[in-house]
């Protein structure tokens, strides 16, 4: 077994690999760029080597720097994580030439499966079901339009060397092919240094289901069940689960056997994933094989009990797999939510900044529930524009699917993140969505259910009651604390007035205190809007970011952030401003004028911090609705900014190459 390994990656996956290595008694070496000098993976490793400036192309993607770090530290092997150099055959070969072991498959398998065009040829030869498409390289936009027309719409335009949703576009009609081809090729060039794209049929109502495989160097290969990865946004996975709520045992076995057949066909050695598109009739088609550890591997680990990172290390060290296919059992259900630094209320645009507060839910087993959080940041860490926006992967396990989803909902409500915009409100709302809870999924789920983007959720009447009760409980404890600080050491003892109003957003809800003790621990009976009394019980203290307690006997976790004379309460994807007031104060509050937001309708604002890739218009030019105005790149994704209406360009304030802050004015309209 290795004595020391180097992790050629950053963030949560580097931390994840270090954890397994330490468990095995293996010393670890981290590498870091200027931007990651104080990163968590650097602190966790036994040694760390600086490898260059912040841009990945000058640090994490430079194989010579990784090899030099191996020589400097005496690392015997390299675990690449995912992304960066994990699927670059030349890097694997270069390591082998230096006598350093690559913890992953051999160059032959990486080359065969890393190129999506070649991988489909191998899949056909191994009798794996494949999607109809054109496997040659598309020469230009005209060629793309011709091929798409022959295949039949809709089609998927994909980067041959792509992954992670980069370099991928769907064209529903001929008019969308040319722009989709150019954007896919541009993203592929900047992300992978390879601008080749191909086109295949886009399966309508598809599910994205992948099979985890594990193979050693002695001819033994197994599959460890499947993962459902159909909840996607812009072809990027958002929520995954294992097993799939859609597959039956017959289909699972057939997919698993085909995945193993493909792995054996390319002499695969290590953990890998064979991805399939599955239609509504459970017909499945090979999509691609990822010759690396997947982002979503934790859900497989939770339902199988197999440490995939440990198995990768053991296989790389030459050991035989100790696990047989008959040993693989799927136990319970696991769900993973990807926490991204992006604003769900602004079309999920990236967000950067410092984590002024970062408090994940406690990890471990709690009764029949397991909570796991794979992360590479801590409070005070900075989310940079140079890397992927994923902050953490929150996972829950429970005996059944709905129990795992409910556990995820509560864990998300308890996950405190301040300093950046993030997608927890969306993830929390998703956990309540009937279609998700019923397992009626497809890769078009988010686009179909949120066609106009994600908007703040409006609570229903019962939810308003819960929010009003929490707001009232928070206000009572706040006043009790002020009384105590003012020298009144005894509880209120009836001094609190019984009648109140809670303002939720713009609505005023009457609340009456029936009876109870206003202190910590609190237990008080409240009547909301004249209804039957509800018992509110909690150990919460003013200043704590998460309110845990029961409302009417039901467990509730909600985030509390102080506002002037009130609180902002976040719960199940809802976020409301709440203020508990005496009736006379509420009467006066209704008379307060409303401050209107400034008019920005004649400006194009930069929706996120990013780099201006191109400006598509000129001053004085007349533009039609839907036409491209500019392209801004952030966190490895190109974002096309289009005109929302017919307009004339009055002034352009930015140029290609400019780095802009969020809401910077790119151009002004007449």
Your description of this structure?
With 670 residues, the protein is α+β, with helices and mostly antiparallel strands. It has six domains: 4-103, 3-Layer(aba) Sandwich (Rossmann fold); 105-131 and 208-331, D-amino Acid Aminotransferase, Chain A, domain 1; 132-201, ATP-grasp fold, A domain (Dna Ligase, domain 1, 2-Layer Sandwich); 333-447, ATP-grasp fold, B domain (D-amino Acid Aminotransferase, Chain A, domain 1, 2-Layer Sandwich), CATH 3.30.470; 461-589, Glycoprotein, Type 4 Pilin (2-Layer Sandwich), CATH 3.30.700; 603-669, RNA polymerase II/Efflux pump adaptor protein, barrel-sandwich hybrid domain (OB fold (Dihydrolipoamide Acetyltransferase, E2P), Beta Barrel), CATH 2.40.50.100. The protein has 17 helices and 40 strands. The strands form nine sheets. Strands 14-13-10-11-12-15-23-21-20 form a nine-stranded antiparallel beta sheet. A hairpin with a 5-residue loop joins strand 16 (342-343) and strand 17. The longest helix has 25 residues, at 461-485. The chain is globular, with a radius of gyration of 27 Å.
